[in-house]
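[retry 2/3] Ribose-5-phosphate isomerase A: previous attempt timed out, resubmitting with same input.
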Amino acid sequence: MPAELSPIDKAKFVAAKRATDFVEDGMRVGLGTGSTAAWLVRCLGELVRDDGLRIIGVPTSSRTADLAREVGIKVVSLDEAKWLDVTIDGADEYDANLNLIKGGGGALLQEKIVATASDQMVVIADISKQVETLGAFPLPVEVVPFGWQTTKALVEETLVRLNGDTPYVTDEGNYIVDLHLKRIGNPRQLSLVLNQIPGVVENGLFIDICDAVVIGYGDGKVEVRDINAGTVEEDHLDFVDEKNMFSDL
Ligand SMILES: O=C(CO)[C@H](O)[C@H](O)COP(=O)(O)O
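[retry 2/3] Ribose-5-phosphate isomerase A: success.
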């Protein structure tokens, strides 16, 4: 029997489950990274196994690739898929314009490349990720290992301050440094400035990339906000149904 889910996991689960509605038979799907994206991968795996859904998945990290294969999703590289119908991924923060901070799981580079190579990007998140102004979540910046302390000092000079001396190592062998900015007044400009610093590979600000957000709540409520259509749809999903659960929880 599956263990009882916490309200936050229920929220992540219902957001992920509802987001599978964006996926149709034959699609090439970008698969995000993180705990919410892992729910999505499991939900899609269930549809592949039980309903015969045929999709090709392009994972955004080695972790997601392992999980996707484990649940029976056919995995190819972005170069093989070339262009994707939809990418569904989690986020650390989203604002009213659906600009995002991503990369809390250290996968921002692949996530940004895959999302940009998609007709549509859909974010799945619990309501706690919604913010008025981006920046409370430390902004991850991926830097090359060569001279990373110097790059970090340059970023510090350009911006405010940087915490943490032991960098996280990404799938590409790069480092992640986190910017504790508290509030990002102009995310578009900050993103451009950061990416001009030599040694910076990419940053976790996703500007004008996300098309829709599926927001999950602990009671099973789901909201789908589409920034292009300007619509908000409400739904309710039942997570007590055992059919929706996974035996490894
Ligand atoms: O950007 C990410 C990984 O690089 C994740 O999508 C983000 O950190 C959200 O993670 P979670 O769904 O576990 O809260």
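[retry 2/3] Ribose-5-phosphate isomerase A: Residues 32-37, 89-92, 102-108, 111 surround ribulose-5-phosphate (CB under 6 Å).
[retry 2/3] clearing retry counter.
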